[in-house]
Amino acid sequence: MPAQTPTPSAITGWQAVLWDFDGTLADTEPAWWAAEIDMMHGWGAEWTLADAESLVGQSIRYTAGQMIDRAGRDDDPDVVADQLVDHMVDRIRNGQITWIPGARELVAELAAAGVRQALVSSSYRRMLDAALVHFAGDPFSAVVAGDEVERVKPDPLPYTQAAAALGVDPTAALVFEDSPTGVAAATASGAVVYVVGHHPMPEKFRRLSSFEGLGVADLEELHRAGSQ
């Protein structure tokens, strides 16, 4: 009788892994901030790094609305949001985005092990499509983009929708997130959340210092530790 292939839950302890994009897979924040500051300066308005940082994790449309209000303009937030996304798509296509060390390697290892994965982001679909070109194969079985859901993070809908697309219960999924907004969404979905990155977060949340050197077997250890 041939040996049975281990199920994803037997390999990692979870049935699926759900990934945020900005700040989790790719260090896009400096590029977003530069785009916002350049646009505001072009409007003759002030927009500081602190202003940009305060909106990390918010929807692109919300950020555009805040910029328009600050500048005292009456632009359409959707148009401004599209302009910001165009800037990011160009940077990704031109290789001007820094990838979080070890993240893409872990995605590839999980895919090779047959673990279901989804990309869950407030960024727009065309930006995510530009980023997916940089991943070998087709590691994500589902992609939930910010311009394709009725409600964005911190609402749990993006994560519950991703879990449903993978055919798993959110409580059986592991989420990697970096922002308070994303962590709130993932937590509300019922998933187990590990926080990455440098943003301040309450101590109650599990933290992961780095993806570097992290492999499939290590996720099972994380699952065991979290279950104790």
List keywords for this structure.
single chain; 228 residues; alpha/beta; Rossmann fold; 2 domains; six-stranded parallel sheet; two-stranded antiparallel ribbon; 12% strand; globular
* Quaternary: single chain
Could you list the spans in which at least 5 consecutive residues all have pLDDT below 50? Answer: none
How many discrete structural domains? 2
By CATH, the superfamily of the largest domain comes out as HAD superfamily/HAD-like
CATH fold assignment of the largest domain:
Rossmann fold
Protein name: HAD family phosphatase
Pfam families: HAD_2
Organism: Parenemella sanctibonifatiensis
Structure in words:
By secondary structure, the chain is an alpha/beta fold. The chain has two domains: 16-25 and 100-225, Rossmann fold (3-Layer(aba) Sandwich), CATH 3.40.50.1000; 29-94. Helices cover 45% and strands 12% of the residues. The chain is built from ten helices and eight strands. Strands 5-4-1-6-7-8 form a six-stranded parallel sheet, sandwiched between helices. Helix 9 (180-189) links the parallel strand 6 (173-177) and strand 7 (192-195). The longest helix has 17 residues, at 77-93.
